[in-house]
Amino acid sequence: MNYTRFLNPVSLARQPSPIRVLTAILARSPPSMISLAAGSPNVDLFPFKEAEIKLRDGTTMHLDEKKMKTALQYGATPGHGDLLKFLKEMQKTLHNPPTFDRPPDEGGLDVCVTTGSQDGICKSMEMLINPGDNILIDSPTYAGTLAILRPLGCNMLSVATDHQGMIPDALQDVLSRWKPSEKRDPQSSMPRVLYTIPNGVNPTGASLTLKRKEQIYKIAQDYDLLIMEDDPYYFLQYSERAPTFLSLDVDGRVLRFDSFSKVLSSGLRVGFVSGPRPLVNRIEMHMMASVMHTPMMSQMLVSELLNMWGMDGFLKHVDEVVDFYRDKKDSTIKAAEKHLTGLAEWHEPVAGMFLWMKLKGIEDTKSLIEEKAARKEVLLVPGCAFMADDTAPCPYVRASFSLASKENIDLGLSRLAALIREEISN
Ligand SMILES: Cc1ncc(COP(=O)(O)O)c(CNc2cc3ccccc3n(O)c2=O)c1O
Q: Domain Aminotransferase class I/classII large spans what residues (predicted)?
């Protein structure tokens, strides 16, 4: 893979920070090394000494003085060592990437902790995209990614999706404007990046089948596309976890974004990007210049928990989380069938926390939701929020079933039904 063709001038201009280089040298030096280099504050002056964290399962996690000092001090940009080690083992166990043992300059797999997957996606788009570039995205897609892309001035080429995610034939149709051979023409306007959410799509709740992933990966090979696999709902799949693009990635063309937000904590802001070393290295240099690293306290809490639980313990917790969301999904579908049959259409989600509904007889849901629904005391997200063109009418709404009680989901959907009846009778 020629990774340089994917990098924009800003990313190509990035250099490792001299201070971070010294930090890395110090990290691998013997205790006899005398450092007069880093401008790090003296941790003995920090007021925080140690911590006991009570877990819901009745156990306790203890941050002793040594761990507390590490958690309170500057750390390495790629992430806290113990956490990074666990994450790399996790990727090997769950995805067995073909690039795992490849040399770094040949696209060997690397991992960098990010401040939520949002941070990784944002830094990656700011590494890859130039104003005027064409980029391929799911339609509909995550509003947070649209918010990243809009200011970059690129052309978002929407690829149709259905209840099984991105449609490979639709992707091929969008790309039919170009010849695959144009991948060798630096002046070509052909897209270089494909962004997709493979599981529990936000907002549709759809998941790509393995067959579709294989078809999409083949198209990405034909046109030399990078695949950005944004997968925060990977651990929220209601049935067996499907193979990922990372597990198919024989070329080193996948940047995968994982997140602990849906299973451990969203407020700790711990995610991680996995992908070819030449690309992850550029993200790290951006991280050095922007925030230096994801907060060490957050990383320490996640690292201590994962290393205490081990992979089996973590996946046991994931199973409990999946049981919760599957049960909430079931009660949401029951309520939708009870109140919205004939008024709306939907597919049953197979992962995640969202129900995507098309309201019948209503051309655009924006004013219905933002003005009238609020008066009925029910809040959803209008479908236009998930569209590259958010000015076009959109008959869809997204309902999230993660927080509301089953009773309130039932009441909320009954209020939505009353609202739809009023709207279509006018
Ligand atoms: C597909 C996809 N990719 C990346 C992310 C970011 O996850 P993180 O940075 O790892 O925590 C998300 C998070 N999605 C949302 C977050 C959110 C936060 C406050 C309020 C509302 C929110 N709504 O509605 C969301 O959908 C996502 O759905």
A: 33-414
Domain ranges of the chain: 75-311, 319-425
Which residue lies with its CA nearest to atom 28 of ligand 1?
202
Read off the pLDDT of residues 303-354 as tens digits, 9 standing for 90 and up.
Answer: 999 999 999 999 999 999 999 999 999 999 999 999 999 999 999 999 999 9
pLDDT digits (tens, 9 = 90+) for 106-141: 889 999 999 999 999 999 999 999 999 999 999 999
| Neighbouring C-beta atoms of residue 393, cutoff 10 Å | 12
Question: Position 258: which residue type?
Answer: D
Q: What is the rounded distance in angstroms from the CA atom of residue 240 to the CA atom of residue 193?
A: 28
C-beta separation of 416 from 171 below 8 A: no
- Checking if the pLDDT of 20 tops 90, the result is no
327 Cβ contact partners less than 8 Å away, ≥ 6 residues apart:
none
What is the pLDDT, as a whole number, of residue 28?
84
d(CA 102, CA 278): 12
Atom of ligand 1 nearest to the CA of 352: 28
Query: What pTM, to 2 d.p., does this model score?
Result: 0.97
For ligand 1, pick from 112, 266, 274, 398 the residue to mutate: most ligand atoms within 8 Å of CB.
Answer: 266
Evaluate whether the domain defined by 75-311 bears CATH number 3.30.420.40: no
Q: How many angstroms separate the CA atoms of 179 and 164, rounded?
A: 27
Longest dimension (CA), the chain: 81
| Distance from residue 25's CA to the centre of ligand 1 (Å) | 36
Using the mean position of ligand 1's atoms as its centre, give its distance from the Cα of residue 206 in Å.
16
